[in-house]
Amino acid sequence: MIATEDLKIADRNLEKKGFLDVDIDPSLDLEDEIERLKKEKNAIILAHYYQESDIQDIADYIGDSLGLSQKAATTDADIIVFAGVHFMAETAKMLSPEKKVLLPDLKAGCSLADSCPPALFRKFKEQHPNAVVVSYINCTAELKTLTDICCTSTNAVDVINSIPRDKEIIFAPDRNLGAYLEKKTGRDLILWNGSCMVHEVFSNEKITKLQLQYPDAKLIAHPECEEHILEKADFIGSTSGLLKYTKDSDADTFIVATESGILHQMELRAPDKTFIAAPPSNECACNECPHMKRNTMEKLYLCMKYEKPEVNLPPWVIKEGVKSIERMLEISEKAGLGLKD
Ligand code: SF4
């Protein structure tokens, strides 16, 4: 039992710390407690593939940004607990404004979303007044208010192709995904110069060494990776695309160039195959997203028990921002990219 005074102090420090920093009774079985809280509160846990494996294992739905948005839009739970990063919880709030949306750690941000501050982007947009703005869903809620259509790496090609060819297109915030889309669609895009800290660190040299060591391995990469990695990849796809490829492919060894949390689902779905996380250019664990990994089972339990921290947005942001997400969901539906599992 947590003392009331400790809880009050933790609550006062919530904004500064990002989570309720209180000690948990070590004898508690967190998995059992989380399962109990899910039922008691009619809560659903949505987890991104880049979460720690114990969080993935207790989630009700695990997916990439598209699947998670589709699930957030259709769930009948009263509380959505988002085991992911801040922009994902914001997206869930925009799609389900009447529901309570919880994020285990408010400081679970995203370097890519941060690389496109809305005030600067507004000026950039003013220089191209006739352009349609397509933003990768990895952006802030406020940026979504300046966006015509959102996209994820699963539906980005369909989104670009839905825009008449005589229209200029601004693509933000990821320059690597933007350059990849230029190649895939044959369109010139006006690119914002943003990037993800995780997908920029893969070492060409170390991947080549691994390929020599495992000559039959397939190199698979997320389109947020830099061009020199994409050029040598055997397959490029969104997290769910990579997952499907590894399960369906005849190959039995894969070098995986994206956040290493995805390996857990790959190993669960194809236990006889070998998955090697593509190494970063230095010795740190840079192929792990430090923002995604801020969430822990302890923080997940505390946020469900006390229903804090909660993600809220100004009504005008929800009203203006949700249009770009709904447009994306319509295009995905038409392209046959509806919710699958
Ligand atoms: S992996 Fe990159 S794009 Fe994804 S949440 Fe982390 S910083 Fe953002």
UniProtKB/TrEMBL annotation:
Keywords: 4Fe-4S, Cytoplasm, Iron, Iron-sulfur, Metal-binding, Pyridine nucleotide biosynthesis, Transferase. Iminosuccinate binds at residues 48, 65, 136-138, 153, 222-224, 239. Signal peptide: none annotated. GO terms for molecular function: 4 iron, 4 sulfur cluster binding; metal ion binding; quinolinate synthetase A activity. One of its GO terms (cellular component) is cytosol. It is found in: Cytoplasm. InterPro entries: NadA (IPR003473), NadA_sf (IPR036094), Quinolinate_synth_type2 (IPR023066). Binds 1 [4Fe-4S] cluster per subunit. It holds the Pfam family NadA. It catalyses: iminosuccinate + dihydroxyacetone phosphate = quinolinate + phosphate + 2 H2O + H(+). Pathway: Cofactor biosynthesis; NAD(+) biosynthesis; quinolinate from iminoaspartate: step 1/1. The keyword ATP-binding does not apply. HAMAP family: NadA_type2. PANTHER family: QUINOLINATE SYNTHASE, CHLOROPLASTIC, QUINOLINATE SYNTHETASE A. This is Quinolinate synthase. The lineage of its organism: Bacteria, Pseudomonadati, Bacteroidota, Saprospiria, Saprospirales.
